[in-house]
Amino acid sequence: MNNKKKNEGQTDFSYYGLYLLDYLRTNKFEQAGDTAFIRERADHAAETYEKARLEGYPTDGAQELAMDTLLRGLRYSRYAILREVVENEFADEVPEEKQEAFIHKLLPLVGNVFSVYDLSDDNFALSSDYDLLYTELTGATVLYIGEYGV
Questions:
Q1: DSSP string, 82-139
Q2: One Pfam family this chain carries (predicted)?
Q3: What is the pLDDT of residues 34-59, one digit of tens each?
Q4: How far apart are CA 136 and CA 150, in angstroms?
């Protein structure tokens, strides 16, 4: 994709807006195309940073608070979790050069597995639910490969 076209209309995003846009795109969040969502989050993160600095936080501390505000509820994407499962559990079955296409093919088919878990919980990976989801996705992937191959 042409970089100019890819970044069209985004040149007025702030640092936080550009960071969030890249994060959303990289992790395939559905909000990646929602300019209003990105601007609102970015503005809130900038306000958090400014307020923290005025309260005496050091630059690094204020930045950490701003990034937490920016990414709150967006720590875990369906795509990133499924990618982790495929990379960790199926490296022998799914060659690295085919993983991206495989994940895109499989993702819509495992949507119901994700539907019972709250991925917006920023501590989700620390919960037993994360282990259950990981196990369910592993099982679903085994079944898919057994039925359809890679």
A1: HHHHHHHH-TTTS-HHHHHHHHHHHGGGGHHHHTTS-TT-TTGGGSHHHHHHHHHHHH
A2: DUF1896
A3: 999 999 999 999 999 999 999 999 99
A4: 18
Mean per-residue pLDDT over the chain, rounded:
88
- Give the pLDDT confidence score for residue 13 in this predicted structure: 78
Alpha-carbon separation of residue 139 from 43, 64, 126, 132, 144 (angstroms): 41, 37, 21, 11, 9
**Tokens at residue 10, please?**
């985004």
Residue 13 half-sphere exposure toward CB, CA atoms < 13 A: 23
Tell the burial category of 56 from Cβ atoms under 10 Å away from its Cβ (0-12, 13-18, 19+): exposed
Closest CA to 133 of 117, 109, 145, 144: 117
Which residue is it, tokens 């600095």?
A: 53
Where is mean pLDDT largest: 3-7, 11-15, 88-92?
88-92
Copy the structure tokens of residue 85.
Answer: 């499962």
